[in-house]
Fold this sequence. Notes:
The protein has helices at 5-15, 53-61, 65-76, 96-101, 229-237, 271-277, 299-310, 348-360, 380-383, 406-412, 436-447, and strands spanning 127-130, 138-146, 165-170, 181-193, 199-214, 219-222, 279-280, 283-284, 424-425, 430-431. The protein has 453 residues and is an alpha+beta fold. Among the domains are: 34-107 and 259-339, no CATH class; 348-447.
Amino acid sequence: MMRSTPAFMLAALLLGCGGSGAYKEPTGTIPFDPNRPTLGSPGTVQPYTGSNKFVLEAQTSMPTGLELQRKVILRTCGPTNGVCHNQKEYPDMHTTGTFASVINAPCNLQPGTYSSVFDRCERLGDRFKIEDSAFKENEIGWYEVIVGAYVEYKDDETPPSDAAGVHLHLRDPVPPELLKYHWGAGTFLRNFINAQGNVESLSFAKFNTRWWVLDDGRHLYGEVHDYQAGDVEALQSAGIIQGDQNRNGTFGARQGKSVPLINPGNPEESYLVARLRGHMQADPIPGTRMPLANQPPSVTDMLALMCFIQGLDPNATQWNLSSPIDYANCPYTANPEALSLVGAGVHWSDRVWPILQSSCGGCHGGSTPQAGLDMLSPGAWTRLQNFASENPNLKLIDPGRPEKSYLWLKLAGDGSISGSRMPLDPLNSGSRTLPQDQLDSIQTWILAGALND
Ligand code: HEC
């Protein structure tokens, strides 16, 4: 694995939050020393005057981002988890100043393994070209250095895909008419914002060797002679940005979907929130859900976090954590319970739907499903968003609210239902109840927003 801290520092330069803006050639290992952002003046908001107990509690205990950082972020960030690290690692949220600096900062820069990188955390990769050759600039998807002794390959040989040396995996295949190898200075390019604020493409690293085109033309292999070990180390410490960091073929940033850790004004597309929930919209987040060991955020904690992010001005460049959180205008106050993280590990596709198919599909499936409700065939999730035929005031599933979800009431045998408790059990001419663990899963899935995930 390559080191990523220098990449962050460069990213910080690009974002304008880590330096003066003038580009300096990175050398060696750059220590993590986040800039403390200068703060704008705190704003004022009208207080929430409703009666929801979660909102009132959040407003009292977490009136501003400062308390949020101290009471939620700091507690949630343990030494063992991967969302918030200590000051040596990225991202650093252990002080209010550094917490503010993760607003709009790229996510997932220091992953444990490449496969745990979320596509939407990927950024535009650096580009590569070979000077003095017909080789066009090409985005780097991912790269790897395979350590081993130098082997000399003859002109008519083809090095193996795992030959010792530098391997670059490119976004676009090299045109087939190009030679199978090229001698030359492999040049790594990145866009920088110069002191005048203009975008400039600069070469930030070079590696001179023989480059072979392997496999499908997207794979370049650079030979490394034993005396070049130092050059390779320098290359690695330059922190090459990989456009397909998780190596799954999707270039997240290319698809215009890159998300920051905290996305001002947009909590639903903030990686920090997604990491706590285990998903962003319907996309599962790879890796373990956070926090691992510490007490997970409560509904009140989540409400403060969501309303804090919601209230950040997306067009600002600095944010003052001592500004009051605007609970009065925060849409999440309409239904704070839906923010509960309790059921966030229960998914429709691998848990809830299989229960419904096997326990209910026998009657609620086929050409004439009972009560007109088909839970067996594809599209079941969509059909569950409808109103119940037995009670047109209630939806079958009301995300976040089992007590308003008719399907749940039928399972629980609630006194308000028409007909029988479900599932019917014709063999015993009555009803039975689902096993408790299945009921718990369905209930927590509804509480967590009944996602189609
Ligand atoms: C043996 C057949 C049978 C099984 C198994 C069965 N149901 Fe039913 N279900 C019915 C019948 C018949 C009705 C209509 C009469 C009633 O509600 O008692 C019905 C009605 C319903 C309704 C009302 C639909 C509406 O739109 O108002 C829901 C919800 C429901 N069932 C859920 C379930 C669930 C969830 C399961 C599985 C855990 C299940 N059922 C298993 C036979 C069955």
